[in-house]
Amino acid sequence: MDVRDARPDERAALEALQRRSSDVWEQYREQLAAHPDAIEVSAQAIREGRTRVACDRDGAPAGFCVVGTLRDGAVELQDLFVEPGRMHSGVGRLLVDDAVVSARRRGVMRIEVTAGPAVGFYEKVGFERGEAVATRFGPALRLSRSV
Predict the structure, then answer these.
(1) Nearest in space to 97 (alpha carbons), one of 33, 131, 52, 43
(2) What is the pLDDT of residues 15-65, one digit of tens each?
(3) Which of 15, 64, 100, 122 has the most CB within a 10 Å radius?
(4) Are 126 and 136 in contact (CB under 8 A)?
(5) Stretch (H or E) spanning 97
(6) Residue 125 in contact with residue 93, Cβ under 8 Å?
(7) Distance between CA atoms of 20 and 74, rounded to whole angstroms?
(8) How far apart are CA 145 and CA 73, in angstroms?
(9) Which residues 6+ apart lie within 8 Å of 52 measured at CB?
């Protein structure tokens, strides 16, 4: 499996992947259906090379992540979504590892993320729990990982 920059022409496909991935979490389905604007892949993040896609050998996206811009020595892992059928197969870990390598090259000291029900995944890939925060769809935790 390879990780590469997202292409502008696959934005709609990535948004569809984000919807499928988000629908895995039953507690968010109703809210996401009521707020379809919550599913969006930033065209700017794609243009800036901040959206990375994990692809199968046939080139089909298995997952993607979006890394924010540098602020206070850290970058935000803004999004990380994996095709439901590929969850628990290493795709998410591969995307986090790619983000860590990229952050190191840029001299970034840490990666931060806000996570709801996926907290356990982030802990498994090296993030440490921080403070509780409120989000649009309910409570979540801030986590960080040194790079």
Answers:
(1) 52
(2) 999 999 998 887 777 877 777 788 899 999 999 999 999 999 888 999 999
(3) 64
(4) no
(5) helix 91-105
(6) yes
(7) 29
(8) 12
(9) 3, 4, 5, 6, 64, 65, 66, 67, 95, 98, 99, 102
